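TEACHING EXERCISE
Course module: macromolecular assemblies
Task: Read the component lines below, then compare them to the predicted structure of the full complex.
Student: A.B.
Group: 4
Components provided:
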Amino acid sequence: MRDMTRDELQDRLPELLHGRLSAAEAAELERAVSADPELMEELALLRSVRAAHRHAPVIDVSRIVGALPAPSVVPAVAVTGSGPVIDELAERRNARRPVISRRFARAAALLVVVGGGTMVSVWERSGTAPTPVVPVVSAAPATVVGSTMQLGFGTSTDELTVEQLRALESDIRSLDGVPSADPESVTDLLPAEGA
Amino acid sequence: MPDLITAGDDAEMDRALIARWNGGDQRAATMLVEKHAPSLARFVGSLGVITAPEEIVQDTFVRAFGSLDSFRGESSLRSWLFTIARRLVLDQRRATRHERNHVAIEDAQNQLVSADDVLDGVVADESEGRVREAVARLSPTQREVFTLRVVEGLSYKEIAVIASTTEGAARVHYHNAMRAVKEFLDA
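Instructor-supplied answer key:
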């Protein structure tokens, strides 16, 4: 064991006081203390501090024990003869699974309903698809067909015929139940026929 | 007697008692409370709690036993109990801030002595009174660290966990407290 510095010796005096050192460490520290009046004085001071604080308020142990919660007794694994081993904890865990699954299913369904409803509501209020969905088009049909603007969920305007686009425009206009705060923002998807 | 028990033995004994309690042995709970209640009460007192420290001690055990099955033994049961007690004291202080439920540093010594006199019927002699006064005059943090280190014999590591600080800071607080106590006693 390496020699401890004086600071280390001083730092370990409380451990010596409480008997928390190994026999070798305690012997080394006691030797050092006996040769150093300052360490001796400090150890004496620590003893007096400990002694002065040895009295604790009287505690009613039975009252505390009476207030404690009952232990959650871990059931022993039941082994009866050559019969099956019954793990009560595992049974309890398995019994809880359907409840957990039902709860999860309910939460997922609620999420779908609320999320879907919110999307539809937003769509209806704006009278258009979400921002990237409604293209602002003033070019010729060929330009529209060639654009890469998305209708949402990965559908491209490239995949729609002119008739389908007209039908979509008509559908969007019919959804406009709430007056638009900015009527000027409504832009034709396609140029007027014959233009 | 406690001097002969190493920290490892102590923790091992606690683990065995916890296992017995988890197995339904109520006597193990009594033994654990008997073992740790006095030091908890002293610690709570060192934090300046004068009014009903036994309530804090009881609440500490109730909370600890309520979650003993989750106690992993990574820290000692004792330092875990001290941590819970400290949080309860802080909560109580926040709740009763206006009632001045804890004492000012300059008043601590007299109240600590008188509280112990009432509770224990022990009359501190003059030298013990001086030592207690020296400790009572420390700052709350110094007093907490110093008491845990000297009176309860905890390591800096354990103190750091309990007091939500670092080992290095705990060491500094201890040495500053030691210097202050010496200066007071030498004056």
